[in-house]
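Figure 6 in text form: structure in, sequence out.
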């Protein structure tokens, strides 16, 4: 005798019908808020320093070495929290760690605008770096929980465009503020940066979610090959930091941290001090980098989904070699514009690819920890580079040799990326 069909409650049909749409909606929320977090943690908390540096140097009497030390302090703070922030995010959830990190960064940026000495600027920039590292690494790792391997590079690419939006805004606005407020202009800029970061911290606390399950949704579909499950089974907490593939990823990440930060930290300074640009003209070229970089993470993240992480990284590194070398070899406005274009088209692509690669290796749960560990290598390069570059510039009387150093290190990154072998599989 056949059994009568079991009736389902009305809300069950609703969940089945609209669950896919809810997943898509929440993915967009994660991407939009995550992009804002990246813009705050990197665009404002780190790259904002480059735009106000000439005025800040004049305001409190900094030479190039001291300017480099201040940048290094910021990056050392980032390094301190890179691995710890990723591990904390995997244990406590990215949402809390991201909001706390941005709050610290915003407050310390407000206080940077009140300094009157080299020591004070160094201290507050150190704390800004700590907050930046605590928020950036977890938000990049968060995408592994919302996107499977085949879309992970694209998602990370969208996130890193947050820095592009910031460059577009601060490129022309910072010179305008400096002109409007005179000697107080660079302080007003820091106060504005800090306020925006605090606002984004509140938005992140309200809207971010650690995983689809927190919204009543099913988790993402993982690799059909079973590689993701084996990775999670075989790579527990301690094993993440012993995994050869994670160390390899970090070694390839180091040259990017060392080379690109020299380029961005002294971008405006070399244009103003050595190429005859006005602050407004230098700001416009900085803005051009921002406009061009809007889609770079999306494009190169997708390229890495198709070609593989290693080949995509190698191509990007070679483009950076050319861009950095141009700044070190010529003061021609045409050549410098070409350099800005090349860098803009690839600016944030390497972090996007690294974020996707971390999820590929260890799966969504441990992705923030793996990315944080790889970011230690990146952070060491970042922390060392500005001081080295500033000292080289003071020793030879020019920043050009530092730019050539950046080009050489980027070439090392291209060679390292050529040895990176990763197979990307999966479906959304």
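Output sequence:
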């Amino acid at each position: 005798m056949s059994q009568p069909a079991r009736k389902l409650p009305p809300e069950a049909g609703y969940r089945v019908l609209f669950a896919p749409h809810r997943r898509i909606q929440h993915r967009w929320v994660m991407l939009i808020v995550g992009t804002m977090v990246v813009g705050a943690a990197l665009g404002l908390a780190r790259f904002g320093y480059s735009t106000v540096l000439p005025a800040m140097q004049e305001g409190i009497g900094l030479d190039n070495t001291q300017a480099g030390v201040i940048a290094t302090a910021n990056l050392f703070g980032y390094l301190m929290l890179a691995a710890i922030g990723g591990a904390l995010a995997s244990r406590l959830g990215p949402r809390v760690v991201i909001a706390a990190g941005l709050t610290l960064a915003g407050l310390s940026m407000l206080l940077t605008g009140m300094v009157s000495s080299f020591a004070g600027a160094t201290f507050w920039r150190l704390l800004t770096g700590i907050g930046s590292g605590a928020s950036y690494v977890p938000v990049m790792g968060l995408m592994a929980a919302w996107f499977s391997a085949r879309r992970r590079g694209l998602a990370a690419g969208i996130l890193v465009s947050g820095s592009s939006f910031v460059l577009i805004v601060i490129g022309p606005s910072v010179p305008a503020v400096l002109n409007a407020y005179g000697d107080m202009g660079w302080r007003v800029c820091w106060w504005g940066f800090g306020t925006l970061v605090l606002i984004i911290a509140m938005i992140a606390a309200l809207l971010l979610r650690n995983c689809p399950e927190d919204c009543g949704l099913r988790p993402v579909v993982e690799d059909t090959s079973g590689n993701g499950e084996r990775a999670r089974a075989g790579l527990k907490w301690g094993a993440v930091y012993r995994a050869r593939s994670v160390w390899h990823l970090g070694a390839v990440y180091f040259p990017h941290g060392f080379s690109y930060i020299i380029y961005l930290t002294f971008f405006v300074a070399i244009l103003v001090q050595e190429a005859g640009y006005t602050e407004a003209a230098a700001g416009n070229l900085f803005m051009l980098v921002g406009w061009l970089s809007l889609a770079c993470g999306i494009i190169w993240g997708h390229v890495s989904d198709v070609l593989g992480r290693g080949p995509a990284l190698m191509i990007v590194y070679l483009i950076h070699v050319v861009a950095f070398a141009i700044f070190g070899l010529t003061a021609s406005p045409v050549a410098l514009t070409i350099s800005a274009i090349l860098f803009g088209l690839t600016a944030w692509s390497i972090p996007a690819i690294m974020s996707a690669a971390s999820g590929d290796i260890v799966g969504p749960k441990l992705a923030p920890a793996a990315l944080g560990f790889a970011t230690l290598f990146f952070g060491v390069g970042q922390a060392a580079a500005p001081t080295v570059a500033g000292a080289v510039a003071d020793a030879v009387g020019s920043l050009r040799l530092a730019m050539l150093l950046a080009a050489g290190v980027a070439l090392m990154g291209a060679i390292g990326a050529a040895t990176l072998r990763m197979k990307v599989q999966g479906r959304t």
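Caption detail: The chain has one domain: 23-418.
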